[in-house]
Specification:
51% helix
Length: 686
């Protein structure tokens, strides 16, 4: 007889079947996750390859454009003969294997120089006219697409163009034609798996480089799916067939500063769907084996999930570390020092570059970022700047303001160096008050030195101009004026002698007319000498020179001018007197040209720390925002350009002396100009 299954055996079978159902579902879920992770890994690899190629192509093109900008600024382009430029371009091309040729064209597009032909050869118009016209329109560097087959090179080349600007005018367009094999090598070195299709296209959708069939596809339009994608968004994913007809899923990214170039990596759809197919077989095999290996499968699955989680965390940590390394590399390349101020703990942490800029000694056991006390940081700041820097740091955390401050650093050897620091105090939790400022420190000494040299040059030019005007004015007054006076006296004597004799009245009247003309010439010479450099400014000082000028200006133009002098009338430093006199001259000239005023008030206020010059008129007024640098559009700009140029001259003079200028005006309400010039303390050198 056949023995029936015992209840215990049935229970075990039931438990095994019950256990098999969730195991099958769980194995299906594991297979799905595995397939999706495979798809995500493939897409992530394509994204990394695209980013790697995009970064390298952008960097290479930026380097070439930078070299081209240096060549465009060459003094050889200012010479009437282009032979020095031709030789300099040949030397550069010899050291740049990516350069196929160097071309120089005039603004009409005709080639003047092309290294593929001897200097002086008739070359014809430039190729790729679209990028050439874009340079004319934007007046900046432009990265063109792949051009047609050149008449001189016989190749399809990529044009990098920069404008050659002299005295505000675009004189030439300088072009470097790059060989496409250089771009192709970057694409091939990206390390993409076999079967992937990589492409680089220009903004018009024409192929510049390709991993396969490049020789036949170079310069041809890319697939419709690719062209539609770059027209829709600068980066992302899309699906569609390649030029060979293969279905791919493609990741793409537009390159910055390349006039619309983009990089595309296509992963075959079959490669992406293969993990899904494999997961089906795994599901079937797992279902068949689940009845016997349920417990072991559950343990292995749990361990596999844990391992996957650990691997994902490892990848995330690695990606974070790579991002931090890239940020550190960017800061190091810019020669910046990173710094962190913790105002709550009164501590400062900074990089090696920060330590060098602040002049701190290296600690024997220093590793990574160094740390100093907040007091030590302030001690490294110049005493005149210390309070201002501390207030800027406090304001950054209390008012959530951007930190941007320049200060002088005192080094251990006593040397002083200008530095600039910028930073922010981020708030990571809503409602908390931040106490930590993250920022960078840069070396501002070269820029400060250049500004000082420029100011010194402007001051010497201004002094030379004043000296030359003083010389011309004295020559007009002492030599030409005396000659005209002698002429007037001679004509007067001739008039007397002719009047006593038997001379015709017409002759006497002619002599009198000549005498009047000589007197008018004498007045004109005196007025020109006064405008150039009044002798009263050197002999009597600012106050009396302005009084004489105001009286002469009032009589000449018939406008009421009231002059008030406040404070001491003692002599001021010569450069201050000259600047104040020229500021008044320029202000009154602007009033005469533009204000249509009936009355003008001029105030000279001498104080212990400075001299204030106030010029007020009751004229038409103008938009004071425009005078302070805002753009004026349309007809509003007419009649104000001269005023703005005059104000810029006043600002230049004040800048040389550390002065300031403020303007209050509105249309129909007159204008008030406030100029303030600081004075050295009593007894100090001016």
């Amino acid at each position: 007889m056949k023995r029936e299954s015992s209840p215990g055996n049935r229970l075990l079978i039931s438990l095994a079947l019950a256990a098999a159902i969730p195991i099958l579902l769980f194995s299906g879920w594991v297979a799905y996750v595995t397939a999706e992770q495979g798809r995500a890994a493939a897409r992530h690899a394509a994204l990394e390859s695209t980013a790697r190629v995009a970064d390298r192509v952008s960097a290479d093109l930026a380097a070439q454009v930078q070299i081209l900008d240096v060549l465009a600024a060459s003094p050889a382009l200012d010479s009437p003969s282009l032979e020095p430029f031709h030789e300099e371009a040949q030397r550069l091309k010899a050291s740049r294997p990516l350069w196929e040729t160097v071309e120089l064209a005039d603004a009409s597009g005709n080639q003047i120089v092309n290294l593929l032909r001897p200097l002086g050869t008739v070359l014809g118009p430039t190729a790729d006219r679209d990028s050439f016209d874009e340079v004319l329109r934007l007046r900046r560097a432009v990265v063109g697409g792949i051009g047609p087959v050149g008449t001189l090179s016989g190749k399809r080349l990529v044009a990098l163009r920069v404008p050659v600007i002299r005295d505000g005018q675009l004189r030439y367009v300088l072009t470097v034609a790059l060989a496409t094999n250089a771009v192709s090598s970057i694409l091939r070195d990206a390390g993409a798996p076999a079967g992937w299709v990589g492409e680089i296209v220009d903004r018009r959708g024409n192929i510049i480089a390709r991993t396969s069939a490049e020789a036949s596809e170079l310069g041809r339009p890319a697939s419709p799916a690719l062209r539609a994608a770059i027209a829709r968004a600068p980066e992302g994913f899309y699906s569609g067939p390649t030029l060979e007809g293969s279905d791919v899923e493609t990741v793409y990214r537009t390159l910055p500063d390349t006039s619309g170039w983009s990089v595309h990596f296509g992963v075959p759809s079959e490669a992406l769907n293969a993990p899904v197919s494999r997961s089906f077989y795994v599901l079937v095999a797992g279902g068949l084996a689940s009845l016997a290996l349920a417990a072991g499968l559950a343990a292995l699955t749990a361990r596999d999930i844990a391992q996957r989680r650990r691997d994902e965390e490892t990848r995330m940590m690695l990606a974070l570390r790579v991002s931090e390394e890239r940020g550190a590399l960017a800061v190091e390349a810019a020669e910046l020092g990173t710094v962190c101020w913790d105002l709550a703990r009164q501590e400062v942490a900074g990089s090696e570059r920060t330590r060098v800029l602040l002049g701190f000694p290296r600690a024997p056991t220093e590793a990574g970022e160094a740390q100093w006390s907040f007091a030590a940081f302030l001690a490294a700041v110049h005493t005149d700047d210390r309070e201002r820097v501390e207030q800027a740091l406090r304001r950054c955390v209390t008012e959530d303001a951007q930190l941007d401050s320049e200060f002088r650093s005192v080094r251990p050897d006593g040397g002083v160096r200008w530095l600039r620091t910028t930073g922010r105090a981020p708030c990571f939790h809503h409602g908390d008050r931040p106490s930590v400022i993250y920022g960078v420190i840069a070396d501002a000494e070269p820029r400060k030195r250049a500004e000082a040299e420029r100011t010194d040059l402007l001051r010497r030019l201004s002094d030379a101009q004043e000296n030359e005007q003083r010389r011309i004015a004295r020559e007009l007054h002492d030599q030409v004026g005396q000659t005209v006076t002698g002429l007037s006296l001679g004509l007067k004597s001739l008039e007397t002698r002719l009047g006593n004799g038997a001379c015709e009245p017409d002759t006497v009247n002619q002599v009198r007319w000549l005498q009047a003309l000589a007197a008018e010439i004498g007045r004109d010479i005196h007025r020109a000498a006064l405008d150039l450099r009044p002798t009263a400014l050197d002999d009597l000082g600012l106050h009396k020179a302005l009084a004489a000028y105001a009286e002469e200006w009032r009589q000449r133009h018939g406008i009421d001018l009231d002059l008030q002098v406040l404070g001491s009338e003692t002599r001021l430093p010569a450069d201050v007197e000259t600047a104040a006199y020229r500021i008044v001259q320029e202000a009154l000239t602007n009033i005469l040209k533009h204000a249509r005023a009936r009355g003008v008030s001029l105030v000279l206020d001498r104080r212990a720390d400075g001299l204030r010059v106030i010029v007020e008129d009751d004229g038409a007024g103008f938009d004071s925002d425009a005078a302070n640098g805002h753009t004026i559009h349309g007809s509003a700009a007419h009649g104000k350009i001269g005023r703005r140029l005059g104000l810029s001259g006043i600002r230049e003079r004040l800048a040389l002396l550390g002065g300031t200028l403020a303007i209050e005006s509105a249309p129909g309400s007159g204008t008030t100009l406030f100029a303030e010039i600081p004075l050295p303390p009593d007894g100090a050198e001016p």
